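Lab notebook, bench 4. Continuing the backlog of folding jobs that were queued last week. Each job is logged with the same field layout so the records can be merged later without manual cleanup. Today's entry covers Cytochrome c domain-containing protein, a 184-residue chain. Filled in by technician R.K.

JOB TYPE: sequence-to-structure
TARGET: Cytochrome c domain-containing protein
LENGTH: 184
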Amino acid sequence: MKRTKWILAFVAVAAAVLTVARVHAGGGDVARGRYLVTVVGCNDCHTPVRMGPSGPEPDAARLLSGHPEALKLPPPPEQPPGPWVAAVAGTMTAWAGPWGVSFTANLTPDADTGLGRWTEREFLDTMRSGRHLGRGRSLLPPMPVQAIGQMTDEDLRAVFAYLRSVPPIRNRVPEPLPPPVAAR
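JOB STATUS: finished
OUTPUT FIELD FOLLOWS
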């Protein structure tokens, strides 16, 4: 009888911990979100790359923090004619093309410079519409809006839950730059 009560108490505590974790994370599955962020490639652009002993590698200290605010870039190179349409910074966080220059966003839960004040609804609306906060400026290349927008609500909630669980990093990403006047 004692063992049964202990098991029931353990199950009740475990269920409560899981419930609190899910509520704290916005109702999504953090582990699934981490998996999706990894396989979809969010880290590939939103985590700056640094030079390591074997070549470029993600800078784990700046996980998902977007384009480093301290990195001031020169003007992008002139776009060549033909099928080449983009140039990318060595950090993989700034891209230049006919759309201008886009900088990858800070996806950490920092309240001032990341997603810390975003609601789950605003995140889902952004991913579905391809517009900042679901109603603002368009998300720019290389953001794969067409693919991300096809994810299920459950998957997007899991991604948001994971993003809320990573350490916040204060990093104010620059606003996008418009294309040169001659390119318009």
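OBSERVATION: The beta strands are 49-52, 55-58, 87-88, 94-97, 100-103.
SIGNED: R.K.
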